[in-house]
Every structure is written in C-alpha cells, then in structure tokens.
Amino acid sequence: MVRRYGAPPAGRGTGKPTPVLELVPIQAVSPAAVEALLDAAFGSDRHGRTAYRLREGVKPIAGMSLAAVIGDELVGSIQCWPVSLARDEGGAVPMILVGPIAVSPAHQDIGIGRALTRAAIARAEGVEGGDALMLIGDPAFFGRFFGFTAERTGAWRLPGPFDAHRLLALGAGVPNAAGLVGPRVSADAA
Ligand SMILES: CC(C)(COP(=O)(O)OP(=O)(O)OC[C@H]1O[C@@H](n2cnc3c(N)ncnc32)[C@H](O)[C@@H]1OP(=O)(O)O)[C@@H](O)C(=O)NCCC(=O)NCCS
Fold first, then answer.
1. The domain 19-183 is classified under which CATH number: 1.20.1050.10, 3.40.630.30, 3.30.360.10, 1.10.3470.10?
2. How far apart are the C-alpha atoms of 26 and 79, rounded to whole Å?
C-alpha cells in the first residue's frame, strides 16, 4: 500500500536500496492521498476550475489514470476522463480530457510530469476518444514536450471560463468544429 502523501517516508536510513520511480494504476493508492497531492500542486480551491466541470458525473478512465510512486511515497498523478464535443452542426465527437497532472512540489523538475503524461498518451490507443486528447494547460509544457496545440480548439466552448491559448488538443481525431465540450456521461469508464 502506498503511504499517504505528506507522511514521512518509510525505510529511509535503513540501509535498503534507494527506491526507484514507478508508474502504477491510480487505484493502487488511496483516493485521500491523491486528493492531498492535488491540493498541494493546485491549491485547495482547485474544484472551481473549469476543467472540473468537464468531468462531473463521469469516472476517470482506469487504464489511463496513473500514480507515480517512489517506494511507498506518492509523488505524482494523472487522471483522464471521457468527454465529448457536442458539435453545433450536430453529432458528438468522443474525446479524452487529460489531467489533472500533478507532481509533488518536492519532486518537480526531475521528469515525473513528463513520464506520467507520456504514459497516459501511450495508453490512449484503442480507448474511445483516444485519438482526440484535450486539456487546459500550459503550451510551454504540453506543446513543447507532446505536441498539444490550440490549432483546432478555437471554436470550442467550455462550461466555464478559460484562456483560449491554454485549450489544447492532440490527435488525428481532434474535431475542427464549433461546439460545446462536456462530460461524456454515457461512457462506460470502468
Ligand atoms: C506541471 C507539472 C505537472 C510538471 O511536472 P514536473 O515533473 O515538474 O516536470 P518535468 O520534470 O517532467 O519537466 C520539467 C520541464 O518542464 C518545464 N515545466 C514544468 N512545468 C512547466 C509549466 N507549467 N510550463 C512550462 N514549462 C514547465 C520545466 O521548466 C522543465 O523544463 P527544462 O527541462 O527545460 O528545465 C508540475 O510542475 C506540477 O504539478 N505543477 C503544478 C500543477 C500543474 O500546473 N499541472 C499541470 C496542469 S494540469
């Protein structure tokens, strides 16, 4: 079992080998530990963010939601969610919301965020909506390392405020169409 984020590390100074970074299914860690990590990375007012409106009523996609652990310490997490673009011209396009991605402040800048994002993207293949990944985030990170762009998102609307240059997407199936992004409530996300 992975220990609660913020608790003192076990085994340090015991002469055991230094634990290495591992990515595991997020179900392997306690939900409370993930929530504490997200509070540390984003602040406890994070629930007001527009991205949270996109995932109301849906479960995270289990195969794309991961925890980064070092030994029994939770140091990072990524969750992905089924969403869709309800096109103004008709029809809904399945997509996947990537994030939140969080790395504990003490472990940032050593590649964990990139490893989590890379692993989630790799796991999108074959998942419904997996050819149309989207997120609200920094182009300087998600564009630079993974190729997310705002090229096709200009006519998308979200259920809350957002900066247009931070609404990013990746994949051959990203719809270049006007419409409203929302939770894909009919999705079987288990
Ligand atoms: C953004 C975040 C996930 C990156 O994880 P990380 O493990 O620190 O990043 P990595 O070590 O994999 O990558 C580091 C590189 O990314 C850059 N980087 C990190 N965060 C960045 C950001 N928000 N914007 C631009 N570049 C960023 C670093 O400068 C570094 O670049 P360099 O190698 O040229 O010095 C992490 O900083 C975090 O949890 N931040 C708070 C929550 C957040 O903003 N999440 C993203 C939105 S969903």
1. 3.40.630.30
2. 8
* Residue 17 Cα to chain centre, angstroms: 31
Answer yes or no: is the C-beta of 94 below 6 A from any ligand 1 atom.
Answer: no
Mean pLDDT throughout 37-55? 93
The three-state secondary structure class of 37 is helix
Q: What contacts 56, CB < 8 A, 6 or more positions away? A: 183
Task: State if residue 68 touches ligand 1 by the CB under 6 angstroms criterion.
Answer: no
> Mean pLDDT in the chain?
91
What is the C-alpha end-to-end distance of the chain, expressed in Å? 22
In the reported structure, the alpha carbon of residue 164 is separated from the centroid of ligand 1 by a whole-number distance in angstroms of 20
Pocket test for ligand 1, best of 23, 108, 166 (most atoms within 8 A of CB): 108
- Residues 153 and 168 sit within 8 Å (Cβ to Cβ): yes
In sequence order, what DSSP letters do the residues of 72-116 get, joined into one string? TEEEEEEEEEEEEEEETTS-EEEEEEEEEEEE-GGGTTSSHHHHH
Spacing, Cα 188 to ligand 1 middle (Å): 31
pTM: 0.90
| pLDDT above 70: percentage of residues in the chain | 89
188 has a pLDDT exceeding 70: no
